[in-house]
Each structure stands twice: as C-alpha cells, then as structure tokens.
Amino acid sequence: MRMRGRRTRGVLAVVAAAVLGVAGCDAVGGDSAAPSESAKPSPKPTPLWDRSPASVAAVGDSITRGFDACDVLSDCPEASWATGASPEVDSLAVRLLGRTGAAERSWNYAVTGARMADLPGQVARAVRRAPQLVTVMVGANDACRSTPSAMTPVSAFRADFEDSLKSLRKALPKAQVFVASVPNLKRLWSEGRTSPLGKQVWKLGICPSMLGDADALDSAATLRRETVQKRVEDYNKVLEEVCAEDERCRYDGGAVYDYRFGTAQLSRWDYFHPSVNGQARLAEIAYRTVTAKGP
After folding, report:
1. Model-level pTM?
2. In what order do the strands lie in the sheet containing 56-60?
3. Using an 8 Å Cβ cutoff, are 144 and 295 in contact?
C-alpha cells in the first residue's frame, strides 16, 4: 500500500507539471514573455465626428438671421435656428451647449441677402473664434434673383463653396461643418400665395424669380418657377457632393428641402421666411443631423 501510494503521488506530480506546462504555452506562446500586470488596453481612436461640440458659429443668409420671424422686414437673430436664445425655438446652439453656454460660445455671422459668393468672407470672420462646429445655410438668394437668367451659375456656386470649405479647413483642421439644404422655394410659393398680405409683401422684391406674379399659372410662369426649382435642386446636389469630400462635414440629406413648411411655419409678414415655429423645426433638423451616430 505504501509503494502504491508513493507511485500514485508521483504520477499526479507528473500530470500536474504537464498541465501547467500546456497552460503556460497557451497563455504566453513559445518564447514570448508573460504580459505585464500594468499593461493597459489600447485607447479607442478618436471619432471623426464629435456629437457634442463645445462651440458653434453660424454662416449664411436671412434664414439664419431670423429675418421676418419677429417683426416685419427686420432681422431677429434671437429666433435663429442656429444660435438664437428664444426658448420657443430652442436653437441648435442651445440644444448642444445649454442656454448659458450658447450665450458665451455661439456666434452668428450670417447676413440677410447673402449669396454663396459671400460665404468665404463670412467663414473668414467665423474662424477667428475657432468654433468646433460651423453651420452653413445659404443658396436661396442665389436662386431668388430678379429673373431666372440672373441666378448664380451652378459652377460658380460650387467654386465658392469649395473655396469656403478649403479656407475653413486650412484655418481649423478639426472643425466640423453642418450643411443645410436649400429650402424648396416652389413649396414656399405654393403655401404663401394663399395669403393676400403675403403676396403684397412679395411685391416689395422678395424672391421675384419664384414669387413674382404669384397668381399667374400660365405656361411662361410655370416654366419660370420650374427653372428656379431645378436650380435649387442643382445647388443642393453641389452642397451634398462638396460636403461629402470633407470627412468632417455633414449634409442634412435634403431634410430642409424636403420639409413641408405650412403656414404655421412661415412668417405672418411675408409668408416666405420661417416663422418662430419654422425656425424651431429647422433647429430640430440640424440637431438631429449633428447628433446622429456615425463615423
């Protein structure tokens, strides 16, 4: 019995040594050194898009200035979808930064009447603030000219947008850009023409290429409006294509163009520009795009 016990203990020792040896090979592998206890996992790569930027600068035209949202024929930046402080709008900046943060770290460089040719100058002013996010909404005034023939050529529209993004990227390599599509001007005409007051204000010179002779439905008027609408669609294609070439740029996917503005979303003075309610809807679209999960 003693001999059998010694023999059994010897076999168990050999088996234990073999098991430990195999486990050691699996854990370390060949002649590799054992991992250090202090080793830490590699950090995850920083995403290209930050869904919670710490500052916002807005560039663009009258829509971003809140034109006719609060009073007739005047800017109302506090109602701006991008940077406004109005609680009724709950602007993109307020949603991202909070009310205090938006007051301290958001800036509006949009100008009523601006066209794409004005964007490089606005961007040059905006980059001085080194914003983490720049919002762009421009193009309606390029289509809203005295006649369709006076509209900005698509090639010039593209060149100015490309120059704007290049200068922005040179000054701020990591700044993010949100680009809103140009609204559906024909839809705005269709809604606004139901208002006698709106049509009277349109005669003061608001988007004559689309809104002129608002009640005319003859073939010439129809062709004029279709020509303007086609140009808007071409502008949106440019915005999408140029933005896609920049890894830190997000286009809204045509969400503003597709939004069906009703009379509640249009200014009660000109039935063309967004009302406070309309500005709030634009803020929702922008926030949804900026905070969407992605690369």
Report:
1. 0.84
2. 106-108, 56-60, 133-137, 176-179, 249-251
3. no
Token digits of residue 189: 């005409």
Report pLDDT for 177. 98
- pLDDT tens, position by position, 140-154: 999 999 999 999 999
CB 102 within 8 A of CB 110: no
- CA dist 85 to 29, 158, 280, Å? 62, 32, 11
End-to-end CA distance of the chain: 71
Handedness of CA 53, 55, 59, 61 (dihedral sign): positive
